[in-house]
Amino acid sequence: MIWPILATIVTIGVLFFILASALVSATPLHGAPTLGTAINLGQWAKPERVDLSAAIIGLIALAFVLRFFGRWLRLSGLALERDYLRTLGGRRILRDIVRALLGDSLALASVLKRSKKRWLVHSLVLYGFLLMTLSTSLAALLNYADAPHGFWWPPRIAGNLGGLSTLIGLSIMAWRLWRDPYENNGKTYRADLAFVILLYLTTLMGFATEYTMYGLNVPLAHDVFLLHMLLVSLLFLTFPFTRFSHSLLTPFLLIITRLNRSLVNSRNIPAFAEEPAPGRHHKTERLAADLQKQLDPQRTSHAGIRYFP
Amino acid sequence: MRLALLVDLQRCLGCDTCTLACKQENGTPRDVFFARVLNMETGTFPKVKRSYLPVLCNHCADAPCLRACPNKAIFRRSDGIVLIDQDRCNGTGACVSACPYGNIFLTPSDEWYFPADSPYEHYAKARLEPGKARKCTYCAHRLDQGLEPACVVACPGEARIFGDLEDPESKLSQYLRTQQERTGREPFRLLEELATDPSTRYLRPVNGTATTDASSGNLSGTRAAR
What we know:
The complex is a heterodimer. Chain A is mainly alpha-helical. Chain A has helices spanning 2-26, 47-76, 82-86, 90-106, 109-112, 116-142, 154-179, 189-214, 221-237, 246-266, 280-295; one strand spanning 303-307. Chain A has one domain (2-74, 91-256): Fumarate Reductase Cytochrome B subunit. In chain A, helix 8 (189-214) packs antiparallel against helix 9. Chain B has helices at 17-26, 64-68, 94-98, 119-127, 140-143, 150-154, 171-183, 222-225, and strands at 3-8, 36-44, 47-55, 74-76, 82-84, 160-164, 201-203, 211-212, 219-220. In chain B, the strands form 4 sheets. Chain B has a 3-stranded mixed beta sheet. A two-stranded antiparallel sheet of chain B has the order 2-3. In chain B, strands 4-5 form a two-stranded antiparallel sheet.
């Protein structure tokens, strides 16, 4: 529960920063610090317009993400589990969240446990993507006055290395999606392909921007950069509809799994001991309540579970 | 084609035969039950009623477990059955958290009922890998041999009807039609508001509740309607 709230606060904070910087850039105030992103689209749009557009796109993407998580929160029934989770105590909950976020998700421990090869491919894409995101954010937000930065500026080198790593990882993933019949699970295959293709194109366009800006075709730089920005926007706007969603969804579910496992291991609640499906207890209560709703729509009586195997 | 299971709550006795038949068929370890029966009480003594709700994997058309699995270990067959590929499952537990019905099981290690293994346990253990998510398969292995799921065959009350939802001539469709004509009952699904479109359907008891009234000691509903 804490993690989505934190993520939301951070996202809103970043978006607010971009929006505020756009507004400050549009109407300069005396003594106000210089804010804004270093995104320059040349003849296509002034920097403050770019900032404003980015903020609007970001807000729309955020709305999609919140809606997406709203559904998963309902599915997980986390709200019904609140009283049970309280028995764990804040420290244990925090420990589980940190372990799930840093160990299982960021370090990909859950993948490494089963397959080193899969972990390597996953790492190439995940860390490559993170490097690209960090370097772009640093370049756009923290060094506004010096933009555009030189080719050998360290964050730029890190971003390019990240891009290269992402392209290699995505190529292996694309090969696997194409060759491995098990990748088509009958439901998410198109979403998987969409994400791989979109991220591949975005990264390629990022390299194309680098090439045109520092390479041989400077006049084309703003056009290519615009395309890159549009692809980045599309990547985030389609977040809930492509495999991109698993980058946040899987950590969220891993947190719940860890919490539920702790709940079973803590033996705070006798009924939870030896529970083979962590989290099943509160879900079963929800099923019982739902049946009661079906049988007695007027809710004249309360149903309690006597036992279940 | 969409294979589905219908549970007629009017006919369910809460005897747990389905639970045992499933255990026998699938050789599940201790505490793991793919087919469960919730035993519920309503009201205050002496006006107490008891209802039973058999639950199992719903093989949802929009299965959250399938979407949640980061390893693509869960897939949906063309007949609508959702399965977990045991070879690909990494045991991350994402599906367990995603399933709103609590019908996926994941144990770090398996425990059994007896200290010494009987031939049955030897057979069952050979089929199971610990640390992998498991759930009801609608007995896909039996279906592939032209047999019905074990719980359906075993149910003494014939409360479980299995068939193709999309085939109007299937046993399930015919049963639904007959019940609609005779008793006016329409099937419902559990947690419909979550929009997972489960395949498993339920029919309400004819008189609203198939229950035991503690004040009279008589079964009402179930026997009367049969």
